[in-house]
Amino acid sequence: MRKKERAALAQEALEKIYPEISCTLEYDEPYQLMFAARLAAQCTDARVNKVTKTLFVKYPTLKAFADADISELEEDVKPCGFYHTKAKSIKEMAQKLISDFGGKVPSTMEQLLTLPGIGRKTANLMLGDVFGKPAVVTDTHCIRITGRLGLTDNKEPAKVEKDLLKLLDPETSNDFCHRTVQFGRDICRARSPKCGICTLSGFCRYFSDNNTHGGK
C-alpha cells in the first residue's frame, strides 16, 4: 500500500473516531495558546491547564506578562518544570509581540520563529489553531503513530513534518495531528499499544510487522 493511500485511510479513520477535535490546551487569546504551548514542553497539557487557569488571571494582558517580575513569574510557572527558561521565554515573547508586532501574534511561520522560545512545533500549532492554515504539529504522539503506520521513517520533528506535508490533506492536516494526540493517549500508547481493538490495524505497518493479535 502506498503511503498516500495509507495516510488517507488514517485521516478518515481518525475522523470517525474523533469527529470533534481541538487542542487540549485551554486559552482565550492567541498569545495565551502560545504561552501555554511553551509551558507544555516536557510537561502534560493537564498540568499546564491547571497552571494557566490562575496564571492568565494574574497576568490578564500581554503587557502584564511583559512587565512581570521574572522571579515571581518563575514561581508561577514552576509546576511546569524548566521554569527559569520558560518564564524568561514568556516574558521575552510578550515584550517582542508588543515591540515588533503591535501586540498581535504574527500569522506566518517566518515571523513566529523570530519569537523567543518558539520552534516549528508551536509555530505550526498557532498557524493551524489560530489562523486556520494548513499545519503539521509533530508532537511525540504524532511522531510515534505516523511512524507505526508507516507514513514516515524519521524521528526528528522537522523531518516528520516534511514527510507528512507530502501525504496529508492540507485542509485537515492540523486536525489530524490533534487526533493522533488523543489516539495516542487512548489506543496507540508508547508502551503496550492496544492493537487488538485498533481500527487502524488493517493498514498499520507496525501491526503487520509484529503480527500483533489481541493487544492489551
- According to DSSP, the number of beta strands is 0
Structural class: mainly alpha
Main sheet characteristics: none
Tell me the name of the CATH homologous superfamily of the largest domain: Hypothetical protein, domain 2
Which sequence of SSEs, written as H and E, runs from N to C? HHHHHHHHHHHH
CATH top level of the largest domain is Mainly Alpha
Count of helical stretches: 12
Structural features, described:
This protein has 216 residues and is mainly α. It has 2 domains: 3-21 and 136-210, Endonuclease Iii, domain 2; 30-129, Endonuclease III, domain 1 (Orthogonal Bundle). The protein has helices at 3-17, 30-39, 45-58, 62-66, 70-77, 83-101, 109-112, 120-129, 140-149, 157-165, 173-186, 205-210. Helix 2 (30-39) runs antiparallel to helix 8 and helix 9 (140-149) crosses helix 11 (173-186). The longest helix is centred in the middle third of the chain and has 19 residues, at 83-101.
Structural topology:
Blueprint: H1 3-17, H2 30-39, H3 45-58, H4 62-66, H5 70-77, H6 83-101, H7 109-112, H8 120-129, H9 140-149, H10 157-165, H11 173-186, H12 205-210
Helix pairs in contact: 2-3, 2-6, 2-8, 5-6, 9-11
Summarize the model shown:
The chain has 216 residues and is mainly alpha-helical. It has twelve helices and no strands. The protein folds into two domains: 3-21 and 136-210, Endonuclease Iii, domain 2, CATH 1.10.1670; 30-129, Hypothetical protein, domain 2 (Endonuclease III, domain 1, Orthogonal Bundle), CATH 1.10.340.30.
